[in-house]
Amino acid sequence: MKYIMALDQGTTSSRCILFDRAGRICSSAQKEFKQYYPRPGWVEHDAQEIWDTTLEVARTALLKLKAPAADVAAIGITNQRETTVVWDRATGRPVCPAIVWQCRRTSGMVDELVRAGYTELIRSRTGLVPDAYFSGTKLRWILENVPGARERAEAGELLFGTVDSWLIWKLTGGAAHVTDYTNASRTMLFDIHRLCWDGELLSLLGIPRAMLPELRPSSQVYGWTPFELLGGEIPVAGAAGDQQSALFGQCCFEPGDMKNTYGTGCFLLMNTGARPVESKNGLLTTVAASLPGPPQYALEGSVFTAGAAVQWLRDELGVISSAAESREYAESVPDTAGVYVVPAFTGLGAPYWDQYARGMITGITRGFSRAHLVRATLESIAYQTCDICRAMASDARVPLTQLKVDGGASANDFLMQFQSDVLGAQVLRPECIETTALGAAFLAGLAVGFWKGLGDVRSSWECARVFSPEMDCARREELLGGWHRAVACARGAARTDGV
Ligand code: ADP
Questions:
Q1: Residue with the nearest Cα to atom 8 of ligand 1?
Q2: Which residues approach ligand 1 with their CB closer than 6 A?
Q3: CATH for the stretch 3-243
Q4: Which residue among 412, 436, 465 has the greatest number of ligand 1 atoms within 8 angstroms of its CB, and so is best to mutate?
Q5: How sure is the predictor about 131, in pLDDT bands with cuts at 50, 70 and 90?
Q6: 453-495 pLDDT per residue, tens
């Protein structure tokens, strides 16, 4: 057996990558699918299209290599998290469009839970801050709004799943209705300490137990593909939500190991080992992907606007013609001439949690140029990351020594060097930046013995470049001081109530 197949089911596209034992990409295929915005703030996907595109890319990736199914040792899945699917057990058809993680339709339900005083219960059981983002209220919405759904769910005719569950069910011809702990930990229905569905939260949200998937470790054989799908019976042997999968794909197996994915936004996760750490800085506590046995936990924080700020420079301001060009402009000046950009276009996330913050450019003088603006925008991505890293290190009480990076903007050498400088820690960029898919491949490959253990997997993780801090401490603190003053200016900017 030569390959592990990773199915990376994302928000805008489905992808398949075949990895070999050395963790190298041997073949890949990708297909975008349609986004539906039926009302302001609503986002939907067609779950059938999610499955069709997934199967199509799996077949294409095999075909490109002319590889038979017998060459594939196992399939691992990684997926957009929280997106909610409900389907008919008998026909395998979704009963309504999938409600996507970005969809805000259940904000009112969440407000009610908060007003009724359930914030602490939710936080202590699930590690989450109550939000419409998570699956729980989306599932309740379906039960309340799709005719007959509640009765049919109670009778055991309907099944619920996040995208991992849906794909595993389809891939195993309906034999396995399961979800892994990392995906379960994003539903707001799962007790992250006892690793079970939480009875109290289920009754609070009116969710019938009969429709819930069985809970499984992230690395385990869940079932086999029927012959007709891919031309062979392949074990489906691993699953993890995209961010947890990336943490695993970056080999962050030890407490304190941390990764940041620089995409449209940034997603930071820190492994906290066997200990679920409660954050004092508004970070989420979540289950990390691990081998069967005692669970591993992680702290998670996100930056809302990161690479999107580079797109803003390109598309709205027209000051650069490509994202990659930002590096040349940034390096053409020695500093930002005292200017800070705070790209709080949609408010600020952890550790500020200010939905009224708005974008701000501070400290402009007559010499301010395009290059300074570009540099200050890139630096803002590093500062926001630094704020979260420091919050994590303080919550978990571990020193900050290195950060592993991936995602589109991690290709920017200026940004990575500046990140290392303001963190005062090494930044490690791997050879394979497809770490999300790689994590799912590792999880599946470990379950079937394709890799023998974490040590074996570690040796197929290759570092392409290490960025080490070159800035002295005083300069770092001076810059961070300026950044925090700029953040203070941005905070509350959209308030109209005079607070
Ligand atoms: P996503 O998965 O969120 O779509 P990607 O990982 O594909 O994101 O990364 C794309 C983002 O990274 C875009 O917002 C883009 O502006 C930014 N980006 C891509 N390349 C660079 C670069 N060389 N320098 C800075 N930002 C970049």
A1: 263
A2: 263-264, 307-308, 310-311, 323-324, 326, 407-409, 411-412
A3: 3.30.420.40
A4: 412
A5: confident
A6: 999 999 888 899 999 999 999 999 999 999 999 999 999 887 7
